[in-house]
Each structure stands twice: as structure tokens, then as C-alpha cells.
From TrEMBL:
It comes from Piprites chloris (Wing-barred manakin). PANTHER family: CYTOSOLIC FE-S CLUSTER ASSEMBLY FACTOR NUBP2 (PTHR23264:SF19), NUCLEOTIDE-BINDING PROTEIN NBP35 YEAST -RELATED (PTHR23264). One of its GO terms (cellular component) is cytosol. This is NUBP2 factor. Transmembrane segments: none annotated.
Amino acid sequence: LPERSTNLLGVRHILLVLSGKGGVGKSTLSTELALALRHRGLRVGILDVDLCGPSIPRMLRVQDRAVHQCDSGWVPVFVGQDGAIALMSIGFLLERPDDAVVWRGPKKNALIKQFVTDVAWGDLDFLIVDTPPGTSDEHISTVEALRPYRLLGAILVTTPQ
């Protein structure tokens, strides 16, 4: 692996949270899962790759935080008084948290790859990846970028219909 791609080597498990449609609770499930794992004493991170609707910073009440740089890349935002959950989202990179992101595929895919290679996650037991709704290029880019690190697990959120 290239030197800049070592940021995920300390991550033991990667879980993607997916759905075929929007509004089924992917971000809620990702957030609650992270909180539950953290409650069990595990080290947890959330990567929010829902670039057009980054809701996790708001759910965890850290939408006004800023991302900083270190020698290894971007430092995720740490959530809670004890900094128990590491979080990276495009929501931290926007001028205003409610700004719309209207990008074509190549720009979205490049940012996803940058999130995978350039975020200094440190040692985590779980990295939960909150994906956008549907089946799009973002999903393919995410899986391709993460494939070299660990076998991926997935949670598919559905509705009863």
C-alpha cells in the first residue's frame, strides 16, 4: 500500500450501512450502532459518505466543528466529552452546514477515495460507513477504495413493503 493509504490499517472491522431507497433510517442506524458499540467499550468511527445529505454531524450535535490537518492527513472530529467516536463527513468541509452539494460522479468519487486514504482514524474496532440512498457510483467507489483493507461487512436497511 502507498504510504498515505496506511490510515485504515488500525481499523479492525468496516461495516457499510446501505439501503435501496432514502428515508429508511440508515443514518439513524449508523449513529445508534456507533453509540451502542462505544457503550460496550469499543473504539468506533463513522465515515459519512452521504455527500448530498450529510446528517450524522447534526445527529451527534457536532455540525459546527471543523476538520484539522495532521501529518497523516485529516483529523476526524471526535464526538462526546471523552472524544469516544471519531467522525468524518463532508458536512464539516462546507462553509455552512446546510449548503447543498451538487456534484457529478467523478468529484464525489474522488472525495470518497480521499476520505478513505487521507483521514487519520488511528486504532478503531469498528468503522461504520453511512452511505447515500440507492445504488450509485458512490457505493462502488466506497467498496473499491475500502477493499484492500479488510473484508467488509454490510447492514442493509429495508422497509416492510
